[in-house]
Each structure stands twice: as C-alpha cells, then as structure tokens.
C-alpha cells in the first residue's frame, strides 16, 4: 500500500488523468462538430433537392388536384433520389396520398404537421424509430409568384443510414485515438517521474546516510531548478551539522578528558587525606567536642569525595572504552548474598534467591557486585522498607538464557517526569537539591556495567506502590564476548 501512494504513481496517475480528460474533451468536441457538419450537409442537400423538384413539378398541377394527379406528384418527388429511399406524403386538405401504397408515415409527428400547416417555411425533424434515425422534412408548395400558398403540403422521410455510419466511424476513431493518447501520457509521466524522482531518491539516500552518522555526505547539484536549490540547501545544512557535531564531540572529548585528569590528579592527595582522617578518627575520642565534631565531618566528606572520584574514574573508563570484562563462571545467588553481607544489608533486604548452584553464569563478579550494590543502596536511601532482591531465570530452553535481577522497594516510587532520566549522569529531579548523599553517578554506572554485559536495565513503578529496577543479563558466552567487543569499539576502538 505505501508504494501505491508514492510520488511516481501519483505523477503517472495525474498525467494519465489529464491526458484522458484532454482526449475525452477534444474527442467530444470534435465528434460534436463533425456530427453536426455531416448531418447539416445531408439535411441541406435533401431540402434543396426536395424544394427544387417540388418547384419543377408543381406548375403542372391543377388546383384542386385529383387523387391520381396528386399521387403522380408524390411519385415524382420520390423519384428525385435514385436510390429509392425517399418516402413522400402529399396532402391537400383532407386528401392524403403517399409514394408507397399503404404507407402510414409513422415518423411524422403532430408537431411537425402543425408547424407546416401554420407556416410556409420548410421545417425538419430527426426521428428515431425501431433503432433507426430518419430525417422528416415538411414544406408548403407555393404558386409561381412564391407568395401564395397552394394548399399543398409535402412531407418527406429520408433514412439517415449513411450519416449514422459516418457518426459511428467518428466514435470509433475517437475511441481508437484515446488509447494511444493515454499510453503516450503514461510514457511521458514515467519519463517525467524519472527526472523528478532521481534527485529525490538521492536526497533520501543522503538523508539516511546522515542519520547513520556519515556527516560528510553531500549531494551533486545539477541545474538551477527547485530540486537543485533543494540539494544545495541540503548540502549547506549537512555542512553546518557536521561542523556543529564536530564541535560538540570535541567539547565532549575535552570534558571527559578533563574529568579523567582531575579524577586522576585527585587520587593522590585524597589518599593522603584519607590516611590523615583515619588517624584523626582514632584520636577523636581524646579531643574536645568541637574539634572531634570537625574531625568527623572532615572524615565523612573525605569519604564522599573519594567515592565521587572513584565513580568519575569508572565513568571515564567507560567513555574511553577501557572497561574490560573479566568473566568468570559463578553462582549468581551466592554472589548476591555476598554483596548484601559485605555492606551489612542482610537484615535490611528480603532476598528471594534460588538455591546454591541452581543458577550459574559467566559474568564479571566485580561489576555484578557494583550493579546490585547500587540498586539496593538506591532503594534503601530513596525508597522504604521492605526492600526485596529477587533473582530468577528467564528464557526458553532453546532460546537465550537470561538472569533476571529485580530490586523492589515500598517507597513513594519515581515521578513520571523523572523515570526517563534516572540513568542519566548527575540528574537531579529537584533543581533546588544541591546536596545528595551519593555522587549522582551510581545508576549511570549501573547502566554501563549492564550494557557491557550485553544486558538491559529498566526502571518502573509498581502498581502497589514503590519502584522496581529490573536487570536482564544474558548468560551465553558468545553474547558476552560480542557485548565486550562492541563496548570496546564504541569507546574508541580498544
């Protein structure tokens, strides 16, 4: 169906309709004029012959005429046409004779007869009876002076067989001329459509190429018509887009490099600061209360800063394509239990995990730990208990095996305006909230870790209240290897 609405089809149909309408109108006008000419010529010839013959034979009549004389007059008029297809009726008062005995002259209408009785003018009418058209002529016979009515009325019926044949031939010729006209119109439409659609197809191909990232695509500009102007405008837009994207990519690369450099440079002083704060924390109990409070605040902020620097370094590795997977065959349920135990969340989280060794897969244990820790920590900080961690397997035996990890909380859920942005870096749903407990990168790092595994992560709200985060990790080695290769290629070919 989309092809039937294409520009080529519309051009061909438009040309065909215009050609068909033109041929029909031209044929109709030509047919009408030709038909009128044929019939007019035939009619004039018949009336002239009838008037000439009547004027020649009328002086020999005695008025009032006898029936025999009147019949001879009718036969003389009918003999005007050698083909013998004239039928004549002559009337004088109530006396009526015909050139053919017993002819009832069914073609003669009362209106035509009344017109002849009331006027000396020659009248005519075309009458169609039994599928045949005939010309009926009526006239009054005058005396030699041409002004006095003799009382004789002559009626003539002539079949229009020859004229009808001419008309039928005209119809046939018109029909035969219409078909070649339509064929020629379609051929012209195809040629025109080809000329119009060639630059349109080139524009479509170039647009797709731009959409696929080949920003150096340009169109060849030929001619000076509207399509050439469109191609020129496309080239200008493509050049401007290429320049803008190159500038944005440069800015993005510089920003990433800056974040990576800053994070790297901060690690050394932070390590020293952390060592000092550890010593101060040990001696905080022996310090005065104000000093102890300041020491603890410095220690807490140093820990937060160190976590932020670590997260920035992790994001920088993803951006640089240096986030390599170190796969290992592990018990996924046992890995999740260790994540909860290492952070003291065993009593805070309801774990719905399969039995030991029931679900094993090749994953990166460290990255899986980061994914689960970020999601559970996010649920504990921003949601409400009970928080549920659930691990299941999805997929049919003959299809892809998936490990499905769900983290559900019982909090207020995620606003609908925030849901599309929860995995963005440093996204804050409240612009006035400038301080957060985390770095603002936890969910972004989670999404990157899931992506390098070839999996997916999504956030939603539960019908009963609370948020739910769902992670799906493929467990097939081939897919994991491809995901790692794709991640490296996207990050810079490493």
Automatic annotation (TrEMBL):
<dbReference type="InterPro" id="IPR004358">
    <property type="entry name" value="Sig_transdc_His_kin-like_C"/>
</dbReference>
<dbReference type="Pfam" id="PF02518">
    <property type="entry name" value="HATPase_c"/>
</dbReference>
<dbReference type="GO" id="GO:0000155">
    <property type="term" value="F:phosphorelay sensor kinase activity"/>
</dbReference>
<dbReference type="InterPro" id="IPR036890">
    <property type="entry name" value="HATPase_C_sf"/>
</dbReference>
<keyword id="KW-0808">Transferase</keyword>
<keyword id="KW-1133">Transmembrane helix</keyword>
<feature type="domain" description="HAMP">
    <location>
        <begin position="194"/>
        <end position="246"/>
    </location>
</feature>
<dbReference type="Pfam" id="PF00672">
    <property type="entry name" value="HAMP"/>
</dbReference>
<dbReference type="GO" id="GO:0005886">
    <property type="term" value="C:plasma membrane"/>
</dbReference>
<keyword id="KW-0472">Membrane</keyword>
<keyword id="KW-0418">Kinase</keyword>
<keyword id="KW-0902">Two-component regulatory system</keyword>
<dbReference type="InterPro" id="IPR003661">
    <property type="entry name" value="HisK_dim/P_dom"/>
</dbReference>
<dbReference type="InterPro" id="IPR036097">
    <property type="entry name" value="HisK_dim/P_sf"/>
</dbReference>
<keyword id="KW-0597">Phosphoprotein</keyword>
<protein>
    <recommendedName>
        <fullName>histidine kinase</fullName>
        <ecNumber>2.7.13.3</ecNumber>
    </recommendedName>
</protein>
<dbReference type="InterPro" id="IPR005467">
    <property type="entry name" value="His_kinase_dom"/>
</dbReference>
<dbReference type="Pfam" id="PF00512">
    <property type="entry name" value="HisKA"/>
</dbReference>
<dbReference type="InterPro" id="IPR003660">
    <property type="entry name" value="HAMP_dom"/>
</dbReference>
<keyword id="KW-0067">ATP-binding</keyword>
<feature type="domain" description="Histidine kinase">
    <location>
        <begin position="261"/>
        <end position="477"/>
    </location>
</feature>
<keyword id="KW-0547">Nucleotide-binding</keyword>
<keyword id="KW-0812">Transmembrane</keyword>
<dbReference type="InterPro" id="IPR003594">
    <property type="entry name" value="HATPase_dom"/>
</dbReference>
<dbReference type="GO" id="GO:0005524">
    <property type="term" value="F:ATP binding"/>
</dbReference>
């Amino acid at each position: 169906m989309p092809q039937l609405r294409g520009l080529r089809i519309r051009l061909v149909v438009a040309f065909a309709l215009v050609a068909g309408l033109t041929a029909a109108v031209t044929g109709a006008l030509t047919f009408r004029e030709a038909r009128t000419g044929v019939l007019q010529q035939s009619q004039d010839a018949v009336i002239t012959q009838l008037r000439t013959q009547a004027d020649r034979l009328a002086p020999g009549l005695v008025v009032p005429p006898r029936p025999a004389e009147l019949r001879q007059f009718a036969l003389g008029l009918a003999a005007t046409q050698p083909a013998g297809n004239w039928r004549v009726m002559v009337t004088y008062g109530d006396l009526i004779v015909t050139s053919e005995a017993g002819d009832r002259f069914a073609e003669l209408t009362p209106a035509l007869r009344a017109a002849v009785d009331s006027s000396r003018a020659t009248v005519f009418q075309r009458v169609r009876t039994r599928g045949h058209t005939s010309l009926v002529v009526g006239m009054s016979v005058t005396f030699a002076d041409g002004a006095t009515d003799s009382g004789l009325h002559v009626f003539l019926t002539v079949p229009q067989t020859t004229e009808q044949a001419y008309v039928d031939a005209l119809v046939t010729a018109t029909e035969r001329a219409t078909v070649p006209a339509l064929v020629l119109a379609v051929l012209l439409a195809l040629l025109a459509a080809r000329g119009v659609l060639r630059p349109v197809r080139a524009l479509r191909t170039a647009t797709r190429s731009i959409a696929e990232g080949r920003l150096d695509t340009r169109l060849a500009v030929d001619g000076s018509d509207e399509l050439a102007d469109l191609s020129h405008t496309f080239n200008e837009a493509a050049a401007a887009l290429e320049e803008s994207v190159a500038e944005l990519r440069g800015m993005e690369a510089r920003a990433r490099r800056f974040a990576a450099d800053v994070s790297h440079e901060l690690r050394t002083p932070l390590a020293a600061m952390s060592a000092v704060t550890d010593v101060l924390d040990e001696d905080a109990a022996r310090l005065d209360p104000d000093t102890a409070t300041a020491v603890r605040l410095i220690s807490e902020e140093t820990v937060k800063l160190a976590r932020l620097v670590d997260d920035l370094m992790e994001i920088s590795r993803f951006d640089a394509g240096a986030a390599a997977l170190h796969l290992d065959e592990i018990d996924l349920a046992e890995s999740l239990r260790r994540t909860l135990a290492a952070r003291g969340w065993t009593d805070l989280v309801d774990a719905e995990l399969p039995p030991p060794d029931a679900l094993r897969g090749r994953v990166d244990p460290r990255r899986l730990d980061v994914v689960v820790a970020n999601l559970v920590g996010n649920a504990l900080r921003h949601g409400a208990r009970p928080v549920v961690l659930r691990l299941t397997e999805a997929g049919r035996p003959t299809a892809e095996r998936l490990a499905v990890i769900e983290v559900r909380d019982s909090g207020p859920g995620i606003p609908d305006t925030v849901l599309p942005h929860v995995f963005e870096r440093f996204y804050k749903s409240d612009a006035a909230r400038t301080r957060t407990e985390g770095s603002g990168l936890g969910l972004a790092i989670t999404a990157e870790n899931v992506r390098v595994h070839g999996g997916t992560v999504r956030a939603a709200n539960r019908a009963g209240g609370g948020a739910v985060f769902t992670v799906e990790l493929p467990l097939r080695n081939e897919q994991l290897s491809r995901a790692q290769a794709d991640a490296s290629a996207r990050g810079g070919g490493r």
